[in-house]
Design a protein that fits this description.
mainly alpha, flat
């Protein structure tokens, strides 16, 4: 390859990765709609190839509806559901799965093309194979999550939901890290101040923990138990927090405790990010480092406001989906911060 071919390939790979990030973001958003509309259990089979086509005629729809009627969501929650209502929830789950298949194709075909043309370095090829593995694991975890809601209760495991959502976020973050590596931040101006490494590490750990608890809130529908803020129906610590026996189990299983933890983890995260932003703003840091800290501050503030509004309004679909989507953007901003400060020295 000559220099122009190499530059063209680099730009094509860069655009391809951005496209994948955008598609995974759309999957996160559609996944949120699927969960909030109760659509996730409408397709009761995992057919990665044959399931690409939806029911094409009335007989096909009746067959799909008959399969759905055998499972708890219909028998317990919607025993009077009509075929038209079933088609409504089927739509969102189908779109979600179709997007997953499209993401796989948009990843795999260009990846093989870039590989065949020799456009990928050994290191980048290995990293992209890791991304491919994460994508396959994400699809498998999605089905295991759905399967957990087809047994006794019409509700998926909140642990599997957290794993499914966490993998989607991990894929986005990983691809964004590759984008930043390709962009070449190493050549940018270095800071003349010591990186606040402990503070950044604390923000990163708290962000990951908050995302996990957000998934727990979604899976247990814990956003519906107390809908006042900042107090929980007039109390700073609601009755029943840590009320399970043993008490530590409340942190994993109890809806009231999980909502309590999620709201105060979010508050602590907002405070720590504000401290980080002020520290970077006041220090002698490079422009891209200051920009990443400001982006994180703005997105965490927006996310906090969306969370409070969603809670007070008893989880309406649009703000709740925006809250989930904004969480993924917060994670991307965090990756930008981590990448920008990774080599900073005093």
């Amino acid at each position: 390859m000559n220099d122009s071919d190499i530059l063209g390939s680099r730009r094509a790979i860069f655009a391809w990765l951005w496209l994948l990030i955008g598609m995974v973001f759309c999957m996160v958003v559609v996944g949120g709609v699927t969960r909030l509309t109760g659509s996730g259990l409408s397709i009761v089979e995992w057919a990665p190839i044959m399931g690409t086509l939806p029911p094409l005629n009335h007989a096909d729809w009746l067959a799909a509806f008959a399969k759905y009627q055998q499972y708890p969501q219909y028998r317990i929650t919607h025993p009077d559901m009509t075929l038209g209502e079933f088609q409504g929830i089927f739509f969102w789950e189908y779109v979600h799965r179709l997007l997953g298949r499209l993401v796989g194709m948009v990843f795999l075909l260009p990846f093989l093309w870039f590989w065949a043309r020799g456009c990928l370095t050994h290191r980048l090829r290995a990293r992209l194979l890791v991304a491919l593995g994460l994508g396959g694991l994400q699809g498998l975890m999605g089905w295991l999550m759905v399967k957990s809601g087809l047994v006794d209760e019409p509700r998926v495991s909140h642990f599997r939901l957290a794993a499914h959502l966490g993998l989607a976020f991990t894929i986005m973050a990983y691809l964004f890290w590759l984008v930043l590596q390709l962009r070449g931040d190493d050549g940018r101006a270095a800071a003349k101040a010591a990186a606040p490494r402990v503070l950044i590490a604390s923000v990163a750990a708290l962000t990951v923990l908050q995302i996990v608890y957000g998934a727990f809130v979604a899976g247990l529908r814990a956003g519906l138990v107390y809908n006042t803020f900042p107090k929980m129906n007039g109390r700073w610590i609601a009755e029943g927090v840590m009320g399970m026996d043993p008490a530590w189990l409340s942190l994993l299983e109890h809806d009231v405790t999980i909502q309590f933890v999620h709201r105060w983890l979010g508050t602590l995260l907002l405070v720590l990010v504000a401290v980080l932003w002020l520290r970077v703003r006041a220090g002698r840091f490079a422009l891209h480092q200051r920009a990443s800290a400001a982006a994180l501050m703005g997105l965490v503030s927006l996310q906090y406001g969306l969370g409070v509004y969603t809670l007070i309004e008893q989880v309406p679909i649009v703000p709740a989906v925006m809250h989930q989507g904004c969480a993924s953007l917060v994670l991307l901003a965090l990756v930008w911060v981590l990448h920008g400060f990774r080599r900073t020295t005093a």
